[in-house]
């Protein structure tokens, strides 16, 4: 299958040009691959910076704007941004209140964001980070714990709203750690995806197979299984997550039913209905749903589920106004 | 590739259950496959009803809510809703100001919406329709003129806002006819899609082939071509549309860069950048962009472009508050 691209080494720059044209509130630094708010946040608001490999859109660049990120830096497809890029993103938006980095738990991202944080601090900028490692399948793989998945979207929304509300850098770190303990994800893949430079699918799946515990880089999961019904898949995801999440009885959740990029919305809402049933049957309840393709793996078919135990604080920040390319609500016209 | 469904004849009902759980502002009549606003529009607002085959989500059910549709009725996948369903949708939301039907130009839809309108009128409801037939490739096919494509999204947004603003049924019909003359679409496919009941792809495409002038039901287009760059594709779409749209020099547009369901956002924004360049090079300008998968063909890879010549009235209604599952902006918290 062909792709809607020009030169395959220029995809990220071409994407950024289109993003800027489409969203006049954003500006881009093409050379350093940084997307940032055209109008900087005012006063002593902590600036939020995230980033990572490209190919997961709308994450992160689609979450730049009022109520979420101040800047996002984009690596090449499925490749960490360099420390230099991250430093430029930090410098672009830093304020006297400091900068919070939201970093997904992948070795390259962790390393490069750490180097960048050290450099920025040497230049007098106050920098702290929150690592997102919500994937319950990650612990079953020979890797460094849970990978960063859908909880990243929740962290960017909730911490973004808290920062907009004047929360301090220390407060945001604490809230970020709290989110980490209360949120978990898992995904399944129904097809591979094709890295534009490699040009061939990363792996092959049989017609009736799914890859359980898939990552977001087209990498295989921790086991292969026969494809079941939406109900089977919902049960598998809910059970796997609840087994790792120390959620008390009658918990309530914010739920992300996320498409991996190539799964149509009709299937995601079928899954939302089944996930709802699974949670209710276990005595839990759901406060908010977000259904759509928010953290993707190019055109991979499949979905991931993220459950975040909600409380008054997280709901308040979840419901707060947001105005970004991908999430947009509650902002007066 | 497997699908995230249960029983393949129950997809639409399962989807509706998930939609209702996820969006508390909506209610559903599962038996008649109608999605409608839980809180009806007040007073003498004209009610807007649309619908069609399923498999194009978020169209139409994802556009039910404040500022867009009052109700949508869902046929089976790629199948027109029955007159009975449409009558139920009309009855559910009709007001003394009347009901406007937004109908995509497909033989089954046209026939069933007409029958439903007649029945509702016999029951004393004032009903008018606008037919959307914006596909420029449609005229090259042995069909009844242009098929309804991306202009449907614009019509639902702009007429929805105008209705919310108190426009009369006659006024809405006139504005709808005006939109028809000012908007055109065309699409290309890079893969087929698989109807869940048929279980096999509707057609096969070679690795480097695209289907030009694709419809939204997995049907082939009017010719097959070699896949080119994003720039080539943007040029083809812009030229084809401008050849059919009597747009004066230095026109300005509202632009929809639409994914067919299986194309990742990174590619759609690459296309947005190229389409922008093509329009600017021809002396035109763009007032607003909408980039995303809004009228889809299950998991088909590909995209469509819709150009609507903008003016002060259409921009006013485009920018007006909207609160639906798929489009959501400018509504105070």
Q: Notable features of this structure?
A:
333 residues; alpha/beta; six-stranded mixed sheet; Hypothetical Protein Tm841, Chain: A,domain 3; homodimer; Rossmann fold; 8 helices
Describe this structure in words.
The structure is a homodimer of 333-residue chains. By secondary structure, the first copy, chain A, is of the alpha/beta class. Chain A has 2 domains: 175 residues, Rossmann fold (3-Layer(aba) Sandwich), CATH 3.40.50; 136 residues, Hypothetical Protein Tm841, Chain: A,domain 3 (2-Layer Sandwich). Chain A has 8 helices and 14 strands. A 6-stranded mixed sheet of chain A has the order 1-2-4-3-5-6, sandwiched between helices. The first copy, chain A, has a 6-stranded mixed sheet with strand order 9-8-7-12-10-11. In chain A, strand 1 and strand 2 form a beta hairpin. The longest helix of chain A has 17 residues. The model of chain A has no long low-confidence stretch (mean pLDDT 94). At the A-B interface, helix 1, helix 6, helix 7, strand 11 and strand 14 of A face helix 1, helix 6, helix 7, strand 11 and strand 14 of B.
